[in-house]
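Figure S7 source data.
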Amino acid sequence: MRTVEEGALRACPECGGPLPEHGRFTAWCAGCDWNVDPEGGREEPAGRGERIRRRLAERHGERLLADLTADGVPVRLDAFGVLSFTLALAVHAVTVVLLVCGALLLAGASGFWSVVGGLLALGAAWTLRPRLGRLPRDGIVLRRADAPELYALVDEVGRAVGTRGVDAIVVDAEFNASVSTLGVRRRMLTLGVPLWEVLTPRERVALLGHELGHFVNGDTRHGLVVGSALRSLTVWHDYFQPYPRPGDIFEVVTNLLLLPFRYATGALLTLLDLVALRASQRCEYLADAAAARAGSTGAAVALMDRFLVADPVEIALRREVNARRMNGRGRRGAEAAGAGLWEALAEYAADVPESEYERRRRVGALRGHSVDSTHPPTHLRRQCLLRTAREAGTVVTDGAGEGRIAAELAEARARVARELVRDGLDGT
Ligand SMILES: [Zn+2]
Ligand SMILES: [Zn+2]
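Tokens for the predicted zinc ion complex:
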């Protein structure tokens, strides 16, 4: 990456236009796009599967954007949503059939083989059962009593987007946030401290609006049914794994018999994955609309920009953690070494100049940046928000409430910092 020392280069070598002077960030020209993408797409995601997913994400994203803004009112569940739901239910129906057959065989057991058959069917049904979400075992869980003000804000955002709040809030060290279902009905919200700490209060409201928006659209229910069906299919696919080097005639015949089942489950797995991918993109656009309703269109767009600079912010976090690990060991405990970590990160994020955001927006449009392959490309999500009617945002926080939330989160954020400094970040 070509970076320019402070004041070393002031004019664009292509067109002579002025260059922004931010030593830490890539120097580029807003006039002619000189050096806008010095890595030039060299960061292609590793696997071929992931590349295909990304390309599809881009194509779906564009088509969906056209659909969504044509009439202004997005459809909640489209054909892809219905199809993925139906496929998933069919997969679970097979599990139910296995369960019933196993039970019937055992109940009417009239010999050794029906007992074996019954037990095998029950065993298979057990491995294929849908797994329900649960709280992370060693995560930091905030209950309503621990963080009443934060829960009240989540409730208020929920009302603004048309749903209720959550039953558990989990705090972790990711530059991300998410929602999921606990068991059948209870709701969990996961907030990553690194993300939360670099957001303004309005962007936090937009973030909560986006996440709770997923409950409004039934995405988590859909995700639970489809996600568990994908897991069941993967188990099937493993069951039909052939012998790698068949040694005798029995193994050769077994492999031949397994082949059609393996192809069938493989094809179904790919189909369900792709259909669900398209359905999940629609959900993201709808969740973005909820983010704007709660926090305003401006805050929802600003939130998206934060994800554009996720990489440099995560690098900065890694640098801060490493520096603290070097200083903190031996002389001071991890407790003291973790102090000030989030302040330093927030300061770094606040210093990212507008020109760097703009550069990343242009690179995103060139290369198709997205949070991951379940999300439409970020520049399309931005366009979607900016094309629809501007929202002023219905949830407004005040300084006193923000202070109380910060106090409620203080222990969790200190613990995340302490654990980061103690354990280091992956890949360091
Ligand atoms: Zn230029
Ligand atoms: Zn989302």
